[in-house]
Amino acid sequence: MSWVNVSEELLNESRDLNAKIEQVLGAIPPMYTVDPQVQRAQRIDGTGVLPKPVYMDECRNRTIHGPAGDINLRVFVPEKIDGVYLHIHGGGWVLGAADQQDQLLQMLGLTANLAAVSVEYRLAPEHPYPAGPDDCEAAACWLVENAKREFGADRLLIGGESAGAHLSALTLLRMRDRHGAAKHFSGANLVFGAYDLGMTPSQRNWGVRNLVLSTPIMQWFYDQFTPGWSVEQRRDPQVSPLWADLHGMPPALFTVGALDPLLDDNLFMAARWQAAGNHAELQIFPESIHGFHAFPTGIAQLMIQAQLTFVKQTLSGDPRTA
Q1: Which residue of the set 87, 89, 184, 290 is catalytic?
Q2: What is the pTM (predicted TM-score) of this model?
Q3: Over the stretch 258-306, which tens digit does the pLDDT of each residue have?
Q4: Is 7 labeled as catalytic in the residue annotation?
Q5: Pick the catalytic residue: 14, 162, 202, 240?
């Protein structure tokens, strides 16, 4: 575990941003009172809290066959390719889209020589569990079979943010247990993920303070993704990877902010990942909230750099990630 050392200047920058975010979120209806379709439209239009997505001409759409029809993949392909990154977007299994990650895909692709592929998985509540995980599994299987032919490289990595980190972990477990193929993934970049849908202590104890997430918001997301499930049902290893047997997983980087209700999820998951015999690195960023990497702060840049370093080391076969 590593608590990232940050200058007082950057800490104050982050504190100022957190205060502004809390003020803005406190002036609008909580997300659990707004219809998901309305929130999705606001995201596309840029009329909600988040800015309008930037669509990059260099990114393209690709369709593959999925368990319930075609699945769209958003793909960025740089000139030089050393590996392929399967990206799974966040949004609480309810919000977000593959084509809202273009800047991230391009940055990863150009900086780390990766073909970056983001999955347009089905969203709850229209498509509750297991629809989203099924689509992510299908995309992973497609890459295992086709990455070399499609992109000229078969060294695979997987990663995502928040719900995307959760789905990345579930996908690796499914690839191991159903396809014997977890070994095809060289690394996992798991960014402030939720790994216990029954709620870890930090989730339960956080309360109503809204710094992007709160206890009621997390509960609402779980109710959309696993409607009618009990706490015990939500701790089934097939939906909460913290409770799974984690042997045979690739090297992983876990990153999380100290002011994230999902802090315990990442503390516990990194420890269990390592205890199962896998390489795990955990970096905790002070004065940082859920989703802090999306804001233009110095601490966000430190976090993005940590991810890039991990990805590059993994691609190069660095023994620290072996």
Answers
A1: 290
A2: 0.97
A3: 999 999 999 999 999 999 999 999 999 999 999 999 899 999 999 999 9
A4: no
A5: 162
Alpha carbon separation from 179 to 43, 66, 122 (Å, rounded): 36, 16, 22
Contact 224, 254 (CB under 8 A): no
DSSP state string for 249-277: PPPEEEEEEEE-TTHHHHHHHHHHHHHTT
**Tokens read off for 99:** 């084509």
**Count of alpha carbons within 13 Å of 108, Cβ hemisphere only?**
30
d(CA 282, CA 248): 18
In the predicted structure, residue 235 carries a pLDDT above the cut 70: yes
- Could you tell me which CATH class the domain 2-321 is placed in? alpha beta
Tokens 């740089």 belong to: 78
DSSP 123-151: -TTTS-TTHHHHHHHHHHHHHHHHHHHHH
Q: What residues does each domain of the chain span?
A: 2-321
Which listed residue (135, 260, 264, 265) is catalytic? 260
Q: Which residues, 6+ apart, have CB-to-CB distance to 184 below 8 Å?
A: 144, 154, 156, 175
Range name among 113-117, 179-183, 187-191, 243-247 with the lowest pLDDT average = 179-183
279 is catalytic: no
Can you read off the two tokens belonging to residue 302?
Answer: 């430190």
Q: What is the pLDDT confidence band of residue 183, given thresholds at 50, 70 and 90?
A: confident
Q: Two tokens at 46? A: 């840029």
**Predicted confidence (pLDDT) at residue 322 exceeds the cutoff of 50:** no
Give the three-state DSSP class for 64.
strand
Find all residues with CB under 8 Å of 117, minimum gap 6, and list them: 62, 73, 74, 75, 84, 85, 86, 87, 139, 143
Please say if 162 is a catalytic residue: yes
- Which run of H or E residues covers position 98? none
